[in-house]
Amino acid sequence: MDKSPDAFRTISEVAEELDLPQHVLRFWETRFSQIKPMKRGGGRRYYRPQDVELIKGIRHMLYDQGYTIKGVQKLLRDNGNQFVVAIGRGDMAAVEAITQQKVAEAKEKGADDEMLVGKPKAKPSRRFFGMGMEEEGPVSADDGRLSRDNRALLQETLFDLLECKRLLDQVR
């Protein structure tokens, strides 16, 4: 028996629908304050339809678009939940409308035109491992140079790993 589209979903239903492990959903709750499932006795989570839509958008930004957690947090902070939901749905008309509204608000405040939508971080390439060509020429593995994008990627990864360690230490 299928549930109504307006019905609340358990964590297992959401995890199955979005092809995500349940622990990832729990982790994202710690990273994105906008994800707020209802919790019942015993800590059971029930996700509202709007929670599921937001998670779909976050999943799309992280897995399909290559954004970092910090990048998606900034998008949510700067543009709101509906922006990420619209991106997750592929509703480019809504994305454009929200973007135009933000540009208009920024102009009213006298702010400079700024980019409202960030760009995903560069994915590691063969250059990252010292196997390719850098813009200035070849980079050997032992000269220790990293591109700015790869250095930022490493720093963000280190931050995320340290935060995971902190969370694991709290559980112990």
UniProtKB/TrEMBL annotation:
<dbReference type="InterPro" id="IPR000551">
    <property type="entry name" value="MerR-type_HTH_dom"/>
</dbReference>
<dbReference type="InterPro" id="IPR009061">
    <property type="entry name" value="DNA-bd_dom_put_sf"/>
</dbReference>
<feature type="domain" description="HTH merR-type">
    <location>
        <begin position="10"/>
        <end position="78"/>
    </location>
</feature>
<protein>
    <submittedName>
        <fullName>MerR family transcriptional regulator</fullName>
    </submittedName>
</protein>
<dbReference type="InterPro" id="IPR047057">
    <property type="entry name" value="MerR_fam"/>
</dbReference>
<dbReference type="Pfam" id="PF13411">
    <property type="entry name" value="MerR_1"/>
</dbReference>
<keyword id="KW-0238">DNA-binding</keyword>
